[in-house]
């Protein structure tokens, strides 16, 4: 199976593209978000379309091109490297690994995944290049979070003329626990885990889905870092397909 057909198959599994009337609608930004976008565009010469918000909080998600440019201006890393997307032909994932070399020589690594059919606020990921770019952005964002580097916080420090703080690397176990918690939250949002008062949660659909994509594991706890990233992306797709169908 080719890379393109694998990604298309995954998109179909997540749900058929909705008609135009059901396409994700552009999200209206709050005044605080609009102000933040203007600041970053002016200070780092990035495309405003590279800054998105998933909810009404002020925390932005930067797509890869913008994030790389901002890190170049704000970061104090010896090296920032992001791999070319690796295609999982069986599950239709595009996965990247980001590696940050800190000033003291330590290397922080993390993964990010996406696929055609994935969604962003206001639009669906409908082509391979967008899926690849989103996977790279997620990988780099995850590595930065693991390194304790907050883009918006560092931007504010720079405005005040403060020196950048040395990154505080989160333990791998902390990252694992955070990702496992996200898996279960997203599985519930996707309708794969159902709750009812007075009875045990029904996770049968969740375990069936896990077995489809990772037949050799019995629990998400058995997934490695890359697989957790892939499964989170797949759950996002299932949730989006469910929302489009409703």
Short description:
The protein is of the alpha+beta class. It is built from 8 helices and 8 strands, in the order H-H-E-E-H-E-E-E-E-E-E-H-H-H-H-H.
Explain what the structure shows.
- The structure is a single chain.
- The chain is of the alpha+beta class.
- The protein has one domain.
- Helix content is about 45%, strand content about 15%.
- The chain has eight helices and eight strands; from the N terminus they run ααββαββββββααααα.
- It has helices at about 5-15, 30-45, 65-75, 130-145, 150-160, 170-190, 205-215, 225-245; strands spanning about 50, 60, 80, 85-90, 95-100, 105-115, 120, 125.
- The strands form three sheets. Strands 3, 4, 5 and 6 form a four-stranded antiparallel beta sheet that branches. Strands 1-2 form a two-stranded antiparallel sheet.
- A hairpin with an 8-residue loop joins strand 1 (about 50) and strand 2.
- Helix 1 (about 5-15) crosses helix 8 (about 225-245), helix 3 packs parallel to helix 4 and helix 6 packs parallel to helix 8 (about 225-245).
Into which percent range does the helicity of residues fall?
40-55%
- Overall structural class, as computed from helix and strand content, comes to alpha+beta
Provide the low-confidence segments as ranges: 13-22
- Please describe the biggest sheet, giving its number of strands, its sense, and whether it closes into a barrel: 4 strands, antiparallel
How many discrete structural domains?
Answer: 1
| Shape by Cα distribution | globular
| Number of strand segments | 8
Query: What is the alpha-carbon Rg in Å?
Result: 19 Å
Strand content: 5-15%
